[in-house]
């Protein structure tokens, strides 16, 4: 009614349709649940970041002066557990995936809206359990819960932490289940598998890992809790049990879990790069299938975490070889993104800057992963800062860069407001610089032999550690900035047009922010994904008559 | 891929659709497909959940072959066999309940649902008896566990190692305990299904909850079909 008028009457959308706490806490709208997740994971991100800050402050000097060894053990443990289980795993799927997948495929909601809300509540229950555990003493086993230390020796709150992560696992499983059914059963007419946005493909692959991997960590944690409470002997060599069995079960999930963190990020990058290069993605099917390949190969490489744990040398050889194989689909993606940019009309907006950051950092992380997949080098750098640097390049350099890039890309759609572009570009730059300053020195530290998980170190490592701590400060500023200007934009930002980037994809054809049921009418898809050539030349209609 | 076509466009039957059709589905068929597909995926997660336990069992069975045999022999196989029969019967009554809904036979549907739940309760009762026996024999892992001087089947001169037998019993209690927990959840689901059936919610056209709940029940039965030989029958030969 008001659309024809110039007067700024706000259209009805999912944000202003209902007000009040109950309309949020009892919502089954996937977009509102996405925002609930956004708030909760941001909270845990800053808790995890706070632990990281304390770790870096302790490592500013070689002596153990800020915290005692016991406290330090708890700090890195809880940093890992909070960041992995309460931030990285839900990050992109539960926020951006939840918000976007139904809209991208032209559906009104996920297949199971109430289960979607249930999974948020499970996450919150798990989060409260974890907070309770942290506030009443914490846990010091490392995020990996290695037995028999966790089951027989540690005198911290292992059971509480284990149960918290057990519950959070069900939240993750239900999200994955919902996505798979939604992608299979809820697509709009004409939205064929080969027209799906690559963001959806990568979430589909992620969901497969969540569905098949997470139950295994769940049962493993049940066994750890039972073993610790009752001394059954399942993982305790003194009682006839096998600690290596624990490691196998743990890494069977926890290695693929890395792909739960990075695949959605790759999906975000696959959306951003074609948009800001104004080109169709290069090799659509290869990018789509490489996501599935990563999910499948990802299940076959777990024992590369155990090369020095005493597994058979032949098993180690096989797992080393298989670990290399994951590099192939990953490289397919990187090359295809690069090829997409070739001769493209590149725009350096903030999301694209994050995508560039992702490309560089993920490539670094991936290539150092090959070092670690090589048996000889792995023995040299196992449990050193080289490993720490490697997986932070993947999980922070890759996954978090993608998450921030995605938030910037879709923020106008989510909030209906524009953020200040200049600040956003500055933040992207600060994050990139801060990240490299934090973690590049750690590659060198690790190669020189500084072990992980120690609160003291020899004096000769100090310069590199000071650089790393300085970088962490810069990185912290880089992370605070988006939070500030996103919040600012919600009140003071200019209203966003429906399609500020002239992007392809169904989510840009509905209003910003979308209505509760996403579309006025059920969309019918007659075009291929990433038809930027058609959008920019205005030949869209002719194109699908011919095609 | 399971389906080559995307969702069906809004059908012409929209004006007469069932009240059970939720707003975000276009057709009842789409909703039914989504529900049962969702349950199949959930069952896949359950396979992986129990899979971790089966994997652990396999490893320790190979390591402590004789000890597992001795420990397994101490469990009452008659109770286990009875429970197997009870569960198979309950799977039959689940199918009959669905059939009752399909042919609009209310008596058959409700009677079968009640029978299913009675079978489920009988299973849990027999399980409880078995646990009680184990408790009295000090076969529950923990401080008062005792498995002294039990000969290894086939080697009357050798005794089973109590620690290794304790691992068997740990797995026995965790596997059957988690299975029993699934039975309890199943009974909860069936109480809800019975209420819905009582209120006349299920028709030959719409009985998706029965089918989905039935899938779950069958799955829990199938887990038992694997647990029974692994835990009760591995060393029963003369």
Distance between the termini of chain B: 50 Å
What is the class of chain A in the CATH system?
Mainly Alpha
Order of helices and strands of chain B: HHHHEEHH
Q: Structural class of the helix and strand makeup of chain A?
A: mainly alpha
Question: What is the average per-residue confidence, as pLDDT of chain A, rounded to a whole number?
Answer: 94
CATH class (first level) name of chain B: Mainly Alpha
Multimeric status of the protein: heterodimer
Major beta-sheet overview of chain A: none
Count of DSSP strands of chain B: 2
Q: Which architecture name of chain B does CATH use? A: Up-down Bundle
Q: Can you offer a commentary on this structure?
A:
The complex is a heterodimer of chains A (547) and B (238). Chain A has 547 residues and is mainly α. Chain A contains 17 helices and no strands. Chain A has one domain: Cytochrome c oxidase-like, subunit I domain (Cytochrome C Oxidase, Chain A). Helix content of chain A is 68%, strand content 0%. The radius of gyration of chain A is 23 Å and the shape is globular. The model of chain A is unreliable at 1-7 and 541-547 (pLDDT under 50). With 238 residues, chain B is mostly helical. Chain B has a single domain (27-232), classed as Up-down Bundle (Four Helix Bundle (Hemerythrin (Met), subunit A)), CATH 1.20.120.80. Helices cover 69% and strands 3% of the residues of chain B. In chain B, strands 1-2 form a two-stranded antiparallel ribbon. In chain B, a hairpin with a 2-residue loop joins strand 1 and strand 2. In chain B, helix 1 runs parallel beside helix 6, helix 4 runs antiparallel to helix 5 (162-198) and helix 5 (162-198) packs antiparallel against helix 6 (208-232). Chain B is elongated. The relative contact order of chain B is 0.16. Chains A and B meet through helix 6, helix 7 and helix 8 of A and helix 1 and helix 5 of B.
